[in-house]
Amino acid sequence: MTFLSILPTLTPLLAEAPASTQAPAGSGPFTVVMMTFVLLIVMWFLIVLPKKSQDKQAQKLIDSIKINDKVMTTAGIIGTVTSLDKDGGEVVLRVDDATGTKIRFAIGAICFVFNKEAAKEAKEAAKDKQTKKK
C-alpha cells in the first residue's frame, strides 16, 4: 500500500475539518509590543546591569593602584608598579628585579592587585579557624 493509494480515502476526512473562524488568542498588535518590551527588560537584566557592575569594579581597582603594588595584567604578566599616570592612562611595571626590566602598559590592562594587607588578614583568619577547630 502506497501513500498515493491512501490519499483518496483521506481527502474527504481532511476536507471535513472545521475552519477556524476566530483569530488565535494573543495575536493582536498589543501582544507584539508587550513581548518586545519584555524582551528588552530581560536583555537589560542579563547584559547591561552585569556590565555596569564590572565597570564599577574595574574603576575601583584602578583607583586603588599605588606605586610599589604588585599587580597582574590581563596578559598574565606580574610586576611591581614603578610609575603611575592615571590621567594619561599609563602604568610602568618592573617585571624582573634582577635586570630591572620595565614594561609600560595601559592602566586598563591591570586586572588584579596583590594586596599584602588582605593576604595577611586571610592568613590570620585561616589560623583562627584552625585554632577554633582544635
Task: Walk me through what this model shows.
With 134 residues, the protein is of the alpha+beta class. It folds into 2 domains: 28-64; 66-134, SH3 type barrels, CATH 2.30.30. Helix content is 50%, strand content 22%. It has helices spanning 3-15, 29-64, 116-133; strands at 70-73, 78-85, 90-96, 101-106, 110-114. A 5-stranded antiparallel beta sheet has the order 4-3-2-1-5. A hairpin with a 4-residue loop joins strand 3 and strand 4 (101-106). It is elongated. 4% of the residues are buried. The model has no long low-confidence stretch (mean pLDDT 81).
The SSE string, one letter per element, is HHEEEEEH
In the sheet with the most strands, the strands line up as 4-3-2-1-5
Domain count: 2
The major β-sheet equals: 5 strands, antiparallel
* Strands, total number: 5
Choose one word for the global shape: elongated
Q: Can you tell me the CATH topology of the largest domain?
A: SH3 type barrels
**CATH C-level class of the largest domain:** Mainly Beta
User: What is the second-level CATH architecture of the largest domain?
Assistant: Roll
Poorly predicted tracts of residues = none
State the helical fraction: 40-55%
Strands, helices and their partners?
Layout: H1 3-15, H2 29-64, E1 70-73, E2 78-85, E3 90-96, E4 101-106, E5 110-114, H3 116-133
Antiparallel strand pairs: 1-2, 1-5, 2-3, 3-4
Explain briefly what this protein structure is.
The chain is an alpha+beta fold. The chain is built from three helices and five strands.
Keywords:
SH3 type barrels; elongated; 2 domains; alpha+beta; 3 helices; 134 residues; 5 strands
